[in-house]
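Comment on the following before class.
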Amino acid sequence: MIWSEVRHAYPNCWLIIEAVEAHTADERRILDKIAVLEACDDNAEVMLAYERWHQAYPQREFYFAHTGREELDIRERRWLGIRRSHMDFLTRAGAIINLRDLRLDIAA
């Protein structure tokens, strides 16, 4: 689905969504294809649901959003000058990221 279809199918609702197909442009995450995983009644419930999904499947790309938003505005966050998607790749590859000392250790 695309966001306009999601908004139509789930009016005035908090959702947990997954980016099935996505890309980055101008430091914004563009979700080309979305899967709706869960509908929630309020923002407290959606935060708990997001944490549950993220803990169960940390490698997948989840977001929460309210369908009252006409467009999704997802900005890529950077740590140590590195995009989140790159940080996820590095940690899956065995890198240890120390944010306290601002150091990145890569296993040989």
